[in-house]
């Protein structure tokens, strides 16, 4: 199974609040999206873009990259509402989020590459590392991860259509 398929499954298991009950995302119907609490720390896609930008800015000056919840970020990109009625600006903001996420992942790969020989899987990896490093290692991950992320966000969105 591809790591992006595993990540997609984790995203569908993300717990949300529906009528004050915690349920996994996959149990929702399209009409439930308006009344569900996504249980995310951001109120809009714009807030998420600002968070990712600030995280990227902080991590450029840090020797150790923060491990953030990639599942929460992907669910946010796919399902958070836009601030304004302008659909074009919402799409631009979504693309900014994907770009920042891709850059964070690439920075994390570079950080890990400094400490590990990339032919072997490090012993202390978590789901974030498993997904971004795509063990067994692919050679073109930096060039292809934004397209994989776009496809993943599209799959989450299309689940509710």
Q: What tags apply to this protein structure?
A:
161 residues, mainly alpha, two-stranded antiparallel ribbon, 6 helices, 2 strands
Q: What's the number of structural domains?
A: 1
Instruction: Sketch the major β-sheet.
Output: 2 strands, antiparallel
Count of helical stretches: 6
Shape: globular
Q: Are there runs of 5+ residues with pLDDT below 50, and where? A: none
Helix content: 55-70%
- Based on CA atoms alone, the radius of gyration comes out at 16 Å
Distance between the termini: 25 Å
- Report strand %: under 5%
Classify the secondary structure makeup into a structural class.
mainly alpha
Query: How many runs of DSSP E, i.e. beta strands?
Result: 2
Give the mean pLDDT: 78
As laid out across the biggest beta sheet, the strand order is 1-2
Explain how this protein is built.
The chain has 6 helices and 2 strands; from the N terminus they run H-E-E-H-H-H-H-H. It is mainly alpha-helical. Helix 2 packs parallel to helix 4.
């Amino acid at each position: 199974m591809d790591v992006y398929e595993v990540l997609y499954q984790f995203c569908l298991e993300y717990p949300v609040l529906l009528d004050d009950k915690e349920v996994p995302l996959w149990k929702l119907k399209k009409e439930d999206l308006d009344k569900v609490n996504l249980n995310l720390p951001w109120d809009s896609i714009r807030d998420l873009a600002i968070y990712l930008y600030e995280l990227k800015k902080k991590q450029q000056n840090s020797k150790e990259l923060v491990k953030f919840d990639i599942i929460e970020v992907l669910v946010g990109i796919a399902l958070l509402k836009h601030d304004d009625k302008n659909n074009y600006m919402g799409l631009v903001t979504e693309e900014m989020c994907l770009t920042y996420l891709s850059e964070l992942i690439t920075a994390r790969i570079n950080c890990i590459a400094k400490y590990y020989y990339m032919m072997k899987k490090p012993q202390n990896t978590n789901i974030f590392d498993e997904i971004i490093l795509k063990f067994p290692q692919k050679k073109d991950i930096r060039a292809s991860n934004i397209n994989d992320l776009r496809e993943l966000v599209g799959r989450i969105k299309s689940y509710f259509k």
